[in-house]
Amino acid sequence: MGVRLLVLVVLSVAIMVVDARFTLLKPVRSQMSLVLMQSYWIADLPERLYQGVASQFGSRTELAAENEKLKTENLLLQGRLQKLAALTEQNVRLRELLNSSALVNEKVEVAELIGMDPNPFTHRIIINKGERDGVVLGQPVLDARGLMGQVVELMPYTSRVLLLTDTTHSIPVQVNRNGLRAIASGTGNPERLELRHVADTADIKEGDLLVSSGLGQRFPAGYPVATVKEVIHDSGQPFAIVRAVPTAALNRSRYLLLVFSDGRSPEERAADAAQQQESLDRQTADPTAVPSATVPGAAPAATPNKAVVPATVPKPAGHSASSTPANANSAPAPATTAPAATTPAKPATSKPPVKPAAKPASTRPATPAATPAAPREREE
Fold this sequence. Notes:
This protein is an alpha+beta fold and 380 residues long. Helix 3 (45-58) packs across helix 4. Helix content is 45%, strand content 20%. Strand 3 and strand 4 (147-154) form a beta hairpin. The termini are far apart.
């Protein structure tokens, strides 16, 4: 038994070293998560049973469903309102840099926290959304108050999120009051961030709101990150010591938001916006061109007795049939235009020679149609 225990201990240490130093066991971990999901479900079964019984005896299932729906809607609305604080101060500056049509509202999805990393030196959490739900590496995660971190590991049905306060995490931010840019890094303390390499003469003070600048092309711009708590100026140091408190409740939030932001670069968004503007300009220009194309067709309609009328007047079939025999009596040339006048009405019978046009003139207009033709010619 002692030898078996020693072999298992050595094997366990070797696997932990390989998992920490190399990436060979990531596929195995991804597949093992499918098996562990069943254990998570079984471990969470008593709590879910208790909640189900409590809801049945307390307020019934309708009130519980309505409560969950209201929580989700409240979380979504709070996530949308977060950008208002930044957009109020940066509206003029953003309009100068980007076209308004290039600013696309991000799509979000609600996720739930189901686990935390037991290692006290790393700040990571596990959420119940994974690769099957469309989650990607580096996707931003936020709660109802601000940014929390980003996805660093994907599994089929779960994901690991690295929080802002981890010592290996940094995020580009800017002061909402004046647009001053800086880098906020984690300190290992869930209630503290530090701004590195901030000049001692920089315009930053206690109470300033720090928002994401979007310069790293990872986090969307304009979301709250932290609030400046302390600014220490040392005359002997080139940089000031700036400490901030995260706006997100990193150790209390249970429901989170996954942000599906636009993966295009600012240049691509600006180019697409310019193309959309050009297409809108063309659509506004087309209505002015359509009347100009239709006006020449309406002018010949006012002179129905000329040689161009049979080719341009498609509306009254009876009037065009009566006008072609009159033109045939006046000049020999309209013999070639008579087929063109009959083609718009019934092209199957009017393409043969001029005889079909002569028959209606000889049969029906003997008494009524011959008399109106002469007065029309006299009036013209």
